[in-house]
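Morning F.,

Quick status update on the modeling queue. The single chain you submitted on Monday has been processed. Sequence for confirmation:
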Amino acid sequence: GIKDLYKYSRFDFIVFAVLCGCDYFSAGIKGVGPKMTTRMVLDWKTRKFNPIRRLVDVKNGKAMNMSKDEMKLKGLFKNYPDLDLDKLISEFMAREEGNKAEVFRLHKDLMCSAPKFIAIMKHLLDWTPVKVTLLYKPDF
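Structure tokens below.
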């Protein structure tokens, strides 16, 4: 069913955070909100696109068969000529995953804790978070 598409990966969350605003890019892309981002991510899942690669391709004008949302996003990216998506995404990828819940800063200066973010995602997507138990102790 369609609910199976709502399993957000780490890459989906990174795309969500970049477009809607986060610690590394606090403003986000003006004109893009959680609903539009969610629609695009779900569309990319359906079309089996890597969300980060697709985001970069849309920004660079290399994406083929763009949806209406992607066309809008491509236009909005023109307002951010200095936005270095590669650098921004690298900062996310380099961040260590600790036991502490990450704090997401959504646009409009709204501080959003991980539990609140999960509640928003559950509401928007009928998304069920999955708790992962580590069977080993990481060395870091």
